[in-house]
Structure formats: C-alpha cells, structure tokens
C-alpha cells in the first residue's frame, strides 16, 4: 500500500503501535502544518458518505436485504450503514450485524457496559483493525 500511496505523491508516515497513537500524531501534524483533519470514523460527514453504500444497494437489489453484515473498527462504517438504512426506509426489514476483531472490541465492550468505554489496549495481533473508543 505504501508504494501505491507514494506513487500518487503522498508522504507516508507510519507512527505508533495502534491506530489511536497514529491518530494522535496525525492531529499533531495537522497543527504543525496548518492542515485539515478528517476523522476516519467519528464524524457525521464521514457517516453520510458511508450511507451511500446503502443507496447503491437499493439500486442493485430487487428489495431490501434481510441483513447487512459489516465490520467495526471505530464504528464509522456501521454508523453510515445505519444512517443509510434509515434513509431508505429499511429500518424495520433489514438487520445489521456488526463484527469486531477479538482484542479490539470497543463496540461490544461499550454495549455490554451500557456506555461508551475506552479499551485499555488493543490486544489483537491486528493492531490497526480497531480503535480504543468507538464513535
């Protein structure tokens, strides 16, 4: 991936052991370079972009699907799918099944606690597949 990004002229900076550490560095760079920051999952405009996936499904499928299965890292894709389902009027007919990486289950942990919980660490071998806190 890094060579492909560089081929587009991107500066690739790898930082930290988990996504949250990389995000903290990205925010520092935004301040240092007076840039703009787009959160990858905890931002309503990101969710609206993801909601267009459901619009695309509505054009490709003959009816609302019984279920949509999605992954959860920080929760942005899930939020967008839920937003899209509501916009399409599929809330009553389509279940959403969210799947998380074991050892990076901030959504499941938060749902079990009844409130947003920040994980103490990502313990999965796949450190970049989750966030410490869900959106």
User: What is the global morphology?
Assistant: globular
Low-confidence spans: none
Residues in helices, as a percent range: 40-55%
Strand fraction equals 5-15%
Strand and helix order:
HHHEHEH
Order of strands in the sheet with the most strands?
A: 1-2
Mean pLDDT: 95
Radius of gyration: 17 Å
Count of helix runs: 5
Largest sheet: 2 strands, parallel
Structural class: mainly alpha
**Span from first to last CA?**
26 Å
Total beta-strand segments: 2
Q: Can you give a write-up of this model?
A:
- The structure is a single chain.
- The protein has 135 residues and is mainly alpha-helical.
- The chain is 44% helix and 9% strand.
- The chain is built from five helices and two strands.
- The chain has helices at residues 2-7, 19-33, 44-60, 76-88, 106-113; strands at 67-72, 95-100.
- α4 (76-88) links the parallel β1 and β2 (95-100).
Q: In a few lines, what is going on in this structure?
A:
With 135 residues, the chain is mainly alpha-helical. It has five helices and two strands, in the order αααβαβα. β1 (67-72), α4 (76-88) and β2 form a beta-alpha-beta unit.
């Amino acid at each position: 991936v890094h060579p492909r990004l560089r081929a587009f002229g991107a500066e690739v900076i790898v930082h930290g052991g988990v996504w949250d550490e990389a995000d903290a560095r990205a925010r520092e760079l935004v301040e240092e370079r007076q840039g703009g920051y787009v959160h990858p999952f905890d931002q309503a405009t990101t969710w609206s972009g993801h909601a267009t996936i459901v619009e695309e499904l509505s054009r490709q499928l003959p009816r609302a699907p019984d279920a949509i299965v999605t992954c959860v890292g920080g929760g942005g894709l899930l939020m967008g799918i839920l937003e899209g389902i509501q916009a399409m009027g599929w809330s009553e007919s389509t279940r959403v099944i969210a799947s998380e990486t074991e050892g990076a289950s901030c959504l499941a942990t938060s749902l079990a606690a009844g409130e947003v919980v920040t994980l103490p660490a990502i313990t999965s071998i796949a450190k970049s597949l989750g966030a410490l806190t869900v959106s």
